[in-house]
Amino acid sequence: MYDCTRQYRCTIIRGKSQKEMDDLLPAYAKVIDEVCPCEASEFEMKFNNAFMRYLPAAERVKKTLDNHRTEISGKLFGMYFFSEDGKVYESERTQKFLEDNDQPAFFKDICYKMQFPNGSQKTSPTVLERVSDGICIRPNAFLLKLLLVARTANVDITKREVGYYVLNSLDVLQGKANPYEVLEVISQDQKAGVERTIYVPGKQSSYNWQHINEQMNYLELANLIRFTDDKRVVLNPNEMPTIELFAEDWDKKPEFDVYSYDLNTAENRKLFQYAWDAYFARISSCAGKFATSAASLIVDTTEPQKPTISHTQTTNLTEFGDEGEQIVYEYEKKRVASFNQRLANKVLSLGKTRGLGYDIQSVIAEPGDMAEFVKYIEVKSTKRLTCPDVNDELWIDTLNITRNEWVAAQQHRDFYSIFRVYFTRDGIHMFILKNPMQKFQDGKIQATPMTYRIDFSNVAVDDVVYGLQREGA
């Protein structure tokens, strides 16, 4: 029998604000990709030295840098792991993010793998206490299932109710409750006018709610929930396949079995920590289903059950490389047409043509002798919950370009631009980088070679093995 009054404070590692998490993720990925793989003994120095440039001068102290390295990018985000060979490697999750630039998908994977107990916190005393108290839950799967059930029953649930009845409930955290009985108790209390809240004698409200707020922030960064002005928690109707995928696992045991480890000896705790770090650094088996469409970021919280994705928004990309190219193409068409309607037909979408080094061919369309000169645009899109602050001197972003794109930037210089398109919950925003080659030479951007092509002939071959067969063939 579910007893909501049995409360239990199950904390997670303290991160940063939602906006800071969105801004810091590309910086973490860039630094980890720069310094890894490396010797474990060198990792602290290399990470801290590389990351400090993204912090205000007052925060460039060892304690703060260590927190970013160990607690947030390491334990909370699983962006690298220590291997038994004495080296530190970037994780699959980091590699995937650098490839797809999909920040909500990154947070979806973290939310999907989040469990209690876990190895992100200190084994002694925190994990030992969780095990002793019988904690065993996939909290996000349970919460999303509850919100789905509430949606069907037409019951509104507030952030305060999520905290008290779910994320701070001992029965839920021990896996002894189900979403249906939790919803029944919430509904009964709502009808009776009973308002319950988390309260710890002698503690401030921030202490009582910090772990609740942070868990829910990650679900919002994952684009799965939104908060209305009156503090209700609503599902993102544009993300229903992912939400349902999460919810299917509400009654399953956590994937990583903490209870299979004897944590009473230092040696076993060390083995447990290695195993957890390696597990959490891997992307989940469902990660391929977590891609975020641009349209799914826009949610009308006044009508939260109404999807904002139309049929045309999901099917009109056949002639474009991605959603960002479509946005830039339409933007350029309007811009050029407003200057001279005759020139509008010179705006061409070429993203499907391989090897050019740019996606859009347009014209300058500005007063002067160069109005009809050709300009070349490479479009790079990303999805994130919030828009970067272009006035923030410490903000950084990272994108990948091909060799052909870099050559095109060298060749066309003043007539070549990168349009960075941000799809966010507040709309679509575009940052324009003109003449990136000149900016590289001026030290305003950094460019790092990422891949190498190896050409070889028979003189390089040492051994040849012919006639191999697969086992069982």
What would your notes on this structure say?
Residues 324-426 form the Protein NO VEIN C-terminal domain. It holds the Pfam family BpuJI_N. InterPro entries: NOV_C, Restrct_endonuc_II_BpuJI_N. With 473 residues, the chain is α+β, with helices and mostly antiparallel strands. The chain folds into two domains: 18-297, Arc Repressor Mutant, subunit A (Orthogonal Bundle); 316-441, no CATH class. 41% of the residues lie in helices and 10% in strands. It has helices at residues 18-35, 40-51, 62-76, 92-100, 103-113, 123-132, 139-153, 159-167, 170-173, 179-192, 205-221, 240-247, 266-281, 311-315, 323-339, 403-412, 436-441; strands at 38-39, 80-82, 87-90, 225-227, 233-235, 348-349, 360-363, 374-383, 416-424, 427-434. The strands form three sheets. A five-stranded mixed sheet has the order 6-7-8-9-10. A three-stranded antiparallel sheet has the order 1-3-2. It has a two-stranded antiparallel ribbon with strand order 4-5. Helix 4 runs antiparallel to helix 5 and helix 7 (139-153) packs across helix 10 (179-192). The radius of gyration is 25 Å and the shape is globular. Residues 310-320 have low confidence and may be disordered.
